[in-house]
Description:
By secondary structure, chain A is an alpha/beta fold. Chain A has helices spanning 12-28, 51-75, 91-102, 118-125, 127-131, 158-169, 197-209, 224-228, 247-253; strands spanning 2-7, 30-36, 85-86, 106-110, 136-139, 149-153, 177-183, 191-193, 217-222, 236-240, 259-262. An eleven-stranded mixed sheet of chain A has the order 3-2-1-4-5-11-10-6-7-9-8. Chain B is 43% helix and 23% strand. Chain B has a ten-stranded mixed sheet, with helices on both faces.
Amino acid sequence: MQDVLISLQPDLASSIAIRYACRLEKLVRFTMQVIHIPNMDETGHSHGSGWVHETWENAIVQQAREDIAKLVQKEFFHYSTVEPKIIPGERDLVILEEIRQKKYDLFIEGLLHSFEPDRFFQKLDSMLYRSLPCPALLVKNLVVLDRGIQIVGTPDTIPSLLLWFFKIFNNLPADPDIFVCHFETSWEEAVFMENDAALISDIENDFLKRGKTVGKIKTVKGSPDGLALLVRDHALVISAYPQSQSYMAQLLSMSPCPILFCPEFKID
Amino acid sequence: MRILFAADEHSYSTDALPQVARLGENTWADITLLGVSNQSKAMADIVNTYYKKLSEYFDPKLSPYQQSRSEGNMKTGIHKQITTRIRRGNPSREILEEAKKAECDLIVIGCSTQKDYTWKDAGDVPLKVAKDADCSVLVIKEDKKINKMLCCLDHDNISQESLEMVSQMITLFHADLDIVVLTDSEDVQGKIEKKLSWLIDYYSTRDIFPCIELVKLTNLETFVSRKVRWGLMAMWMGKKSILERVFPSSKVSRLLKANESSVLLLR
């Protein structure tokens, strides 16, 4: 069973993320630990030091604990028995430290989908995403899971994405679609190309070895804008961590689907 | 609820009729079929044909529109009307007057895809009606398949009626719902976030899972015109709407022309 860490704030993005995670858990089965990093800046600064500062900080942590408990309880009762971790500090560092210490298999958080990609790119550029030792699931929308999974990559990244897919979603009944991208900014519209026979054969063998079948495999060339319409309608998109201003990042910024970012290093 | 179906003799009106029937079937609204023409005799025949087609659409045992209602409906006392009306004169003015007089909640009007939101031989009647009506207006483009519906949410004061109207359209067209949240300040965004959370709950209990997207108000026109992703675009045009400020009624035409979808203006 996978161990999952989910980061929550008392806001809509987190509310969507935990709902999606709980639906996913019903299919994949994992243990989920909630973490919340209270924003000390929002609540003002303590004027004192020593025990005065400590009392102020304890009060904030207690308030945050109640807020997050409410959110978790409101969304899903059966997780209310799991005590959320409330840890003050620099958010990225605290989460990264927690993931490294407890060796979580997956990190989940919410981010509302936006036409302006700035916040999405900031997320990709963050120290957390650049350093994560495990995949991160960024939930942008609450999507019904029967819409299937789409693995989006280039011929270079697809093999490692398949390994992550088998590691984390091996129990999923759905056959994932594979979307092989060739970015050509001069082509505004998406153009479907003939699949690379060797790549297809490798993909099919990977699935066959595990007694599974792959969904539709499509190879497409075009600009990120042109391809965007083809990555909109799945329950989950799986991709490698892209560089923030890369064509792949631009393409994924336009997708409203939850996105699983996988590290590119090899896994067993 | 009362629906006014404003029609002429062309194919886009005939194509829109089944949607009126399905709306009536879902909402059990009173329906007025209105034909506007200076040739009253010919128009009377056309409206009668529409009436026959509409009546045939409903199951006589279940329909609240039949004169000889079934025992079941008699018990509940549900009896809704389909009325026909013919008017002479300026089409958009006559449609608006009829809508006002009959206190309609929704005007449904078909239009051609050949030209932008026009009626053949009568110009931009659908545009004028959409722009000047006091009630909600659904402009259905001929041959436009509606798989996705886009709703622009720009304020937190949204009526239950308009939410229901959106639900009806989703059910009617078996469409997915995209909700675009217009943001122009952090304060508004905070309020809208609460409303949005409520909306997600509201729709998810109806097995509708809207896809949310934030758009800065300054980028709205680019967003709307960028790609034709939706078959139907819905906008709240109430007094508190940011849209009303950005797109005052004189500019509704511009917004409508900026996209190729059918349009639902919620008021």
